[in-house]
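User: Structure tokens for both sequences below?

Assistant:
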Amino acid sequence: MAQNAEPSSKKPYKSQTYFSFGAGLSVLQGVPDNFYQDGHGNIQIGFMKEMPINRRLSFLTGLELERTTYNLDFFPVLDESNNTLIQAPDGIKYSRIYQNSFNLSAQARLYFKDNNSKEKPNIFLQTGFRGGYNLSSTYSFRENNENQSINLSELANPFNLQAELMLGFKGNYFKKLEILNASSFGMTYQFNPLLTAGNVENIKPIHLTWRFLF
């Protein structure tokens, strides 16, 4: 009762650290018409820290490892003077890119109702930026009944800058799964291109992700 009597400018609770898990689908913009693309996906795991500013607003920071998979019918031609991508030759199957990245995020969370406690049900809008460092990029394919791979680090952007917008729920909405603190769904747009090769430098991913905080 004493906590509820405090002015709205007071922090409702101390900073909290959550385990974060997310997964979803990805869409690629700017893919040349001569490249066939199939489903793409993303998965993240890490930690997020919520720092309440007042009863309606919190600041969040996050550390995440992310793995993205892009299914594209192409083949890399790596040359010292000119790296490019061509249509996959006959015999190349299941071609895809695997990317692993380390992401740092800074976001603001706006609650629709007064956020008096960690347990109180609430709806929030969350937005901010993520910066990612590309740990590895691998082109994987199957040829002559053998799985093969090519390192694409030379073709991948080393850093990614993304903007995120999510709608979420927290608190006792999840009575049947009490360890779950919050769940959110939204979109992440990447400003810089996925690859640097001249004929694919306009490919940019958009991630649709469902994230869970425990």
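Moving on to the next sequence.
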Amino acid sequence: MNSKKQNYVALAFLFIMMILAAIVENTKGIFIPVFKQEFGVNDNTISNLLISTSAAYMVLTFIGGMLCEKFGQKKVFLAGLMVIFLSLIFLSFTKNYLMLYTGMVISSAGIAMVAISCNTVLPILALTAQNVIMNVMHACYGLGSSIGQGLFGSLTARGVNWRTMYFFVGLVYLAVFICFIFVKIPRTEIVKEKDKMTIIEALSNKVIVAYMLALGLYVFTEQGISNWFVNYMKYGYNINEQKAGMYLSLFFAIFTIGRLFGGFVVEKRGYFNILYKTLIIGAALCILGLLLGRNGMVIISVSGLFFSITFPTTVLTISKVFDKNVAYITGIVITSASLVGMILNKAIGLLNESVGPDKAFYIIPASAILSAILMFYLYLNTKKRLVKQKI
């Protein structure tokens, strides 16, 4: 097999792994009501679980990057796939909350290893049309979320135990692990940068701090809908898991469509000047859906179209705004975004307990609005440096 065909095969596996990662990572929201009932835990305890999974993801993103540099992406891929497989099998035998907590944290660590490998190996696999391929890869994540939410919601409503679902997904991961052993992945050569930026210098840069907060607030918006939308519908309007799962699946289906085609809009119309507008529209739809009550759930699902392009577009602009230390700055921004997501997941858990899920859910569109304000700040401060920027 020639090099070009090998790269196509490798790219196909990247897309498959993004789909599988989303199926595991973004289906926790379907099971939250079940976890609460089965293990006798409250929303605050669940928020602590979500915070811990985010922390594991954040830490392993950093560690995974160093491992990629030392051992190459393929070994990190394989290690991540094996960690996820073992965690899912462990979860399928869960008997108490501690086992659930442990398995969830370990699975997030494995997903982080796979994700950092995908993001760092893509540029050497796709030498042309990187923007389009990056959007397609992230769209695969949305596709996996949609498939997982719909399938797991339907199976849960039919009485299939969540342990059984995790067991069979684990077997799929094992099959992918075995197949991926035979896939050839080129190894990147890491070039050491001179005059590397320190963490103090990064935190002193207002644009970098704005990136950190803007992306973090958006990440929570997406995570919040993924993790708490089903809980909101069940306890706010007594909507069963199957129907609630359908609304969440619709959100990610529309989200995926937006991500597939949104990249072309960004290329023609600009970056941050599009992002702050789409975030405001998405937040407005979310608020409208909340105000309409039971009949507004589909409007919240539609908001996914306007949230879809935020993450890949924001990360993409870092390499266009900064000439040096791009990888370092990207790592800081993504890690900080995870930290902001952790803090706000804790906040919504506490608010669920104190004011109820119906009121607490408003923190999600509020977060999107704050992100939009920071995106506007970034637009004003980076438009001269962004080659593709159009007013």
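User: Anything stand out in the second?

Assistant: Residues 132 and 263 are 7 Å apart (CA to CA).
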